[in-house]
Specification:
The protein is built from 19 helices and 25 strands. The chain is of the alpha+beta class. It has a 5-stranded mixed β-sheet with strand order 1-24-21-17-18. α4 runs antiparallel to α5 (about 105-125).
Length: about 625
């Protein structure tokens, strides 16, 4: 494991005079200035237009679908299909938009929607579902649900700290919510510290469900779905109920619970209290041990006694496990619903904390085991996605590569790139498609336009909409911005690539992040555009341009989404490199100026933090 308590040395070969210079107070050093004129490239103009289009379309969406309290204008009910998590997902990616540089109104609306979500679903009660009869939220958190839906419901909350980590309510909630899972809050016994298990797949602010779940627990109170959009195709309440006939096996730990680490990571990144780091690594390490004891495959069921497979010893069992293929009532056919790949978020978070390759290697080994089961059918390689009492099943074309791109992104190893699926953004970084930035930005602009049009075409009313009815017309489109501005991956819903499962509640994973030191806020300053052109283990190349022809701009660049990396040096254009030893660096861009910057870096050199560059000293 890399030593996270010491600062990393600067580039090999830096002269003694340069090392002496690095010890001078930062305030004494002038801010480097980029003065070379650069006509705004097409990608830069498109980037700024995409940010503006997102701002305007999100404002229109909020005005249409939220009231002045931040309540979603929809029928509030409990249900895995259309519950509280879906309601707040209507503003997914809005915190990311602000952290990229969108206007402050985006953050204001995201926060208002989150506050409204808490109030709306604390007031909303069930009459039939037993655990939500006093409110669907308790202590501002869902009373009891699974971590597929908990993580989706935290997709917005988990990223609010990017823009306002000092918000008192945010700080209180992050630590309080984390206490529900670390064992720190004894009134909420979700965690067993002796066995290092979260005691049920269904947990929340009222503790774990330690009984067989019923279809009612999942489907919610009886209602008439006739006039509502039903995402899973049910046409009657009975079909909605039957959808969950086989969802009863929830007692004991599940890999989905590893998504709780994103919540606890945010608690750590506030003040870097060791107890949060220790819990994350202890819990993830326990899952590594379970995979090793299970032939290098993460088991999908851990009993309350900590044993793999639960009382029956079936490692593949459990709702959303390796062998979970329930019948869809509206078709009568079985559907494979293995959600184990979502657990990768927990291992990415542990890697973000430590840079320790063991947190990625567990996934490499699992993929090797699955690929060893390959078959040749009609001349095509087929590999399984599922495992049950009769062995591996659910074969699909090609090698098993799920989560391969995330593993490569974190490790930057050529061997991991060879194991990952192709992706157009990665091909661009490899120099194979120079036109990708313009194509990607135009595609996201079209997505904003199409979703704004879908809103205008929508004829539903508040009493004919469930919480998930408008998820697919939320206009926020950030994938191209994350990739091109930050050199980051967008692990979200929908998935960032065909080979990656959707992930709710994931954190930001990015090589660079931008701040506006003049306005003292997160996000790239007005008129500035950035294009990450190349990434490697120890280097990031980015072109930075000020599209404003009359006003200078000052920008701060941070090494990593959470300052987890360290800058060792920077070259502006063809100028000689300047030695650095900092997690952030500030530059001035003259009017109409731009340049290609090459940063030398040591990755995962620092404990991640939500603190802004000027607050870290």
């Amino acid at each position: 494991m890399r030593d996270m308590t010491t600062r990393r040395s600067v580039l090999a070969g830096v002269s003694a005079l340069a090392l002496i210079a690095l010890t001078r107070p930062a305030a004494a050093a002038p801010i480097p200035t980029v003065s070379t004129p650069m006509a705004p490239p097409e990608w830069a103009l498109l980037q700024r237009e995409l940010i503006k289009a997102n701002e305007e379309a999100c404002a229109a969406f909020f005005a249409r679908y939220f009231d002045d309290r931040g309540y979603l204008r929809a029928v509030a009910r409990w249900g895995a299909n259309d519950g509280p998590d879906d309601a707040i997902e209507n503003v997914n990616d809005w915190p990311t938009l602000h952290a990229l540089g969108a206007g402050d109104q985006i953050l204001v609306m995201a926060k208002k929607a989150f506050e409204g979500n808490i109030a709306q679903y604390s007031e909303a009660k069930t009459s039939e579902v037993p655990f939500a009869r006093e409110g669907m939220y308790f202590r501002e958190f869902p009373v009891m649900t699974d971590w597929q839906h908990l993580s989706e419901g935290l997709s917005v909350f988990n990223l609010l700290g990017l823009s306002d980590p000092n918000d008192a309510r945010y700080r209180d909630r992050v630590k309080r919510f984390s206490g529900f899972y670390t064992g720190e809050d004894p009134s909420v016994p979700n965690y067993d510290p002796k066995r290092k298990i979260i005691r049920s797949m269904i947990t929340g602010s009222k503790g774990p469900m330690l009984r067989t779940a019923t279809p009612l627990d999942w489907a919610g109170d009886r209602f008439d779905p006739t006039h509502f959009f039903m995402e899973h195709g049910e046409s009657t309440y009975e079909e909605t109920l039957r959808h969950y006939d086989e969802y009863g096996d929830v007692v004991g730990d599940s890999p989905l619970n590893l998504q709780a680490t994103s919540l606890v990571m945010n608690a750590f990144m506030l003040d870097q209290e060791p107890k949060y780091r220790d819990w994350i690594l202890s819990y993830v390490d326990a899952w590594i041990d379970r995979a090793r004891a299970n032939g290098d495959v993460l088991p999908s069921k851990i009993g309350l006694d900590g044993k793999i497979g639960g009382p029956k010893g079936r490692w593949w069992s459990g709702t959303y496990g390796w062998g979970f293929s329930p019948v869809a009532p509206h078709t009568g056919k079985r559907e494979d619903r293995n959600r184990v790949p979502r657990a990768v978020v927990g291992f990415l978070n542990a890697y973000l904390l430590t840079g320790d390759d063991k947190y990625l290697d567990v996934w490499r080994r699992q993929n090797d085991v699955i690929n060893a089961q390959k078959k040749i059918v009609d001349g095509k390689v087929m590999t399984p996605r599922m495992h049950g009492p009769k062995g591996w099943y659910g074969y699909a074309p090609g090698e098993y590569r799920l989560n391969g791109l995330e593993i490569w992104y974190m490790s930057q190893k050529a061997s991991d790139r060879a194991r990952a699926a192709d992706h157009p953004w990665v091909s661009y970084l490899e120099g194979k498609d120079p036109g990708y930035p313009v194509k990607a930005l135009r595609a996201d602009l079209e997505r904003v336009r199409a979703r704004a049009q879908a809103q205008r075409d929508d004829r539903t009313t508040a009493d004919t909409r469930l919480a998930d009815a408008t998820l697919n017309i939320n206009p926020a489109s950030v994938t191209a911005l994350i990739q091109l501005m930050e050199g980051g991956i967008h692990i979200a819903r929908p998935p960032w690539s065909p080979s990656s499962p959707s992930q709710g509640g994931a954190l930001r994973y990015a090589r660079l992040r931008w701040f506006d030191p003049e306005r003292r806020r997160a996000g790239i300053p007005p008129d500035v555009a950035a294009l990450v052109e190349r990434l490697s283990d120890d280097e990031a190349v980015v072109t930075l341009v000020n599209t404003n022809q009359v006003a200078a701009r000052t920008v701060t660049v941070q090494a990593g989404a959470y300052a987890e990396h360290q800058f060792l040096g920077m070259a502006i254009g063809e100028e000689p490199a300047t030695a650095l030893d900092a997690s952030s660096h500030t530059l001035r861009l003259d009017p109409g100026a731009g340049a290609r910057l090459t940063f030398k870096m040591k990755r995962y050199a620092n404990p991640p933090t939500l603190g802004f560059p000027w607050d870290r000293g």
